[in-house]
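S., here's the first fold you wanted:
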Amino acid sequence: MLDRLREDIACILERDPAARSSWEVLTCYPGLHALILHRRASWCRRHGLHWLARLISHTGRFLTGIELHPGATIGHRVFIDHGMGVVVGETAEIGDGCTIYQGVTLGGTALVKGAKRHPTLGKDVIVGANSQVLGGFTVGDGARIGSGAVVVKPVPPGATAVGNPARVIQADTEAAREAAAAKMGFSAYGVTQGDDPVSQAMKGLIDNASAHEHQVMLLWQAIEKLSARTRELPAGDCVPQDAQTTEVFDAERMNRLVK
C-alpha cells in the first residue's frame, strides 16, 4: 500500500510543475485522495460489501468533487489533475500512466446491467478538460483527447481526438501530408491546422495533387516498359518529349491561389 502511495506521489511530482513537495501532494491534491478512497471502495466491492463501497465512493465525491465508481478499474501512476467534476463509470478501465483533467466523464450509453457500458483507456492516455468519452469502446495507448471533445467511437493508439462529435487525427497522416507538401515546395502549415474551411480544402488539394502526380508518374513508367518490350525500342524513344515521367508540382501556382 505504501509503495503504491509513493508511486502516486512520484507521478504527480513528475507531471505537475506546480507540485513542490511530497507533503504538499499528499495533503492538498484531491486527485490523490480520490484514488486512495477508490482503492478502499474497490476492495469492499470485491469482497461483497457493495453498500459500504458506494458509501466510501460517495464520501470521496463529497470531499474531492471526483466521482469514481467502485467497479471502475484504475491502473498505476494515474494522475487526476485538479479533478473537480470528473465522473468515471462502473465498467470503465483506466490504464497505467493516464492523465485526466477536470470535468472529464467516462460514461456509458447503454442501460444493460452487466454489459461493458463505459470506455477503456489504454496506457499513457491524456484526457483533456471537460471532455466526454461515452461508450464501451477502447481509446488506444498514447492517445490524446482534446479539451471539450465528445468521443463516441474508438480512438487508435497514438491518435488525437478533437471536436464535437470528435474526429480522429492520425499523427502519421498529418506528417505524411506535410512531407508531401514540402516535397512540392508548398507548406500545409502556411494556411492553418484548424477547422477553417479554406484550410480543409487546401489539405484536400494537397492530398489529391500528391496522389495524382504519383499516379501519373507510375503510368508513364508502365508505358515506357510496355512500349520498349513490344516495339523493341529504347525506352526514351517511345515517350513524347513533353511526357511527365517524374513527380512535379507547381508550387508557385498553389501559393498564388491562397494569397
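And the second, which I think is the more interesting of the pair:
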Amino acid sequence: MVKITIKGLSFSYGSRSILEELNLVVGDSEVLSLVGPNGSGKTTLIKCIDRILKPKGTILLDGGRDLQSLSRQEVAKYIGYVPQSTTSVLTSTVFDTILMGRKPHMGWRVADEDIDKVVDIMKLLHVEEFALKDFSELSGGQKQRVLIARALAQEPEVLLLDEPTSNLDVKHQLEALDTVRSIVKATGISAVMAIHDLNLAARYSDTLVMLKNGTVHAIGDPSSLLTKENIRSIFGVEAVVMRDLDRPYVVPIRSLNGEAEG
C-alpha cells in the first residue's frame, strides 16, 4: 500500500526555484530519508507535504485523496510533523504540549484514552521525568524529544521529521531514531525524514532520496546509493564508504573546493 504519492511537485520563493518537478512515492512501514547539501530542498519538501507551503503539482494520500482538498484537521489526523526547532513563546507543561497532539481526535473534553496515550508516549520517548516542567525551560534536545512525542500523539499515518537529531547528543540521537523506526515497523505508519547525517540515514532508512538543486538525483536503498561517486557528485566531498553491519558507513576525507560536481 502507498501512503503518499507526489507527482510533478515544484515550489518557488518568488522567482527563486527551490523544487522542480519532483516525483516520489512513500510506502507502508517505510522510513524514507531526504539527504543532500544545504539548500537542496529537504526542508521545503517536508513543509510542502505538511501543507505549510503550497506547491505546484499533486500530493495524493492513500486511496488517491488529494492533500489540497482536505481540511487542516483531516491533514493532522494523517500527518504528524516534527519541526527542526520551535519558536513558540507559549508557556505550557511538557504534558500539555504532548496532549496538543491529541487535538485532531478530541472532542470538547479530554478523554481517559487521550491521557493514557500521552503517558505511554512520554515513557516511550523518556520524557516522563519532566512531564510537569514548562516546555520553554527545556534544553534543545529535550524539546526535540517532546516535539516527536507530540507528533506521535496524533497517531498519524505518516510522520514528517525535519532534522530530528539536530539538537540531540549521540545517545539521544540513537534513542530517538530507534523509537521512530520501531514504531514504523510495529504500526505500519511511514516516516519521511530530512537528515544531514549520512551514517544515521544509512542505519535507519529503508529508502534514501538524494536531492541536488531541488531535483531528485537518485532514489534507492542506502547500500546502493551511498557510494563515493554519489557523495562526490552531491556533496562535493571525497569520501571512503565502508561496510558495518551490512550498512554503508561514510568517512569524509576532504572537500573538493566546497562544491559538488555537476
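Why I say that: The chain is about 30% helix and 30% strand. The longest helix spans residues 170-187.

Talk tomorrow,
H.
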